Fold these 3 entries.
Entry 1:
Amino acid sequence: MATESELQYTSEHEWVLVDGTTATVGITAYAAEKLGDVVFVDLPDVGTTLASGSIVGEIESTKSVGELFAPVDGTVLEKNSAVEDTPELVNSDPLGEGWLIKIEFTELPPLLSFDEYTALLGE
């Protein structure tokens, strides 16, 4: 997967890797750390139409339940079944094997750079 500086981010603590008209989406290392041990991930099915900003799934940890938001309008091309079967991948490799969904999009909304996301965190 890409390095943190190559990714784009949302204020909801998701990262986006753009390749043509495909956006691979996951949660940031910051979000994974704050969630604690992830025990359940619910992702949208392939073919689901998503609206940017809408709730598309959830991540449950030993500490809390978090919602997943669509960072772009589009259609789910692929979901990471490995994460549904082995949710701890979100903690162990949030920027790699812990990716969540791939979305085909037509227009990319404004997203945050790594520096902008880091500033949002206040770190």
Entry 2:
Amino acid sequence: MGRIALIAHDEKKPTLIEFATRYEPTLTDCDLVATGTTGKRLQEETNLEVERKESGPYGGDLMIGGEVAADELDGIVFLRDPLRAQPHEPDISALLRICDVHDVPLATNLSSAELLVEGLLE
């Protein structure tokens, strides 16, 4: 149905797992990619198959940005923690920018993630 990236900062990982569990029937038909730790948790806590990239601080956000630039992603769910500074903030900003440049749907909170999945996939 599409290729979707799933990313979450540490404080948002439980929310992403709940989201993925709720939308598992829909997401099962997708080609899913995630950053390292998020992907590991998704594999352990859901029945979804997920291609894992590096963790965000080790270049995972940039790897996903590369897929956006190569027109290989249909959307991204990136549940960010807006209350904590991230050591790899420049990478996060680059990912957000490349989504805007290539007009790729990007959800950064639970409400927009639900709209993205329902709009793209259901």
Entry 3:
Amino acid sequence: MDHRLDLEMAISREEFLRLLPGAVGSFAEGEEGLFRGADGAGRWIIRLVPLAELRLGSVVLPRHRVEVRLADCPAEAAQAFMAQLLRGFMRGGG
């Protein structure tokens, strides 16, 4: 079964690449913004699409749309993969 998740993240490409291995393990980078891998959840593809910066007064945040696709994956494994991915990008607040 195929699964998808589309997110909008306030994150730079550099920060995304720094956090991605901790979120998904090993991966291969294809064309610009395309990342592929496979694990117990099946095959996955993540596409990183730049969006316009978010401006809040003098604060400027980089933004990207993150498109996650899982192929040939049972529902339980897909849920576990998505939860692991989201945990990998969580930031502490104060």
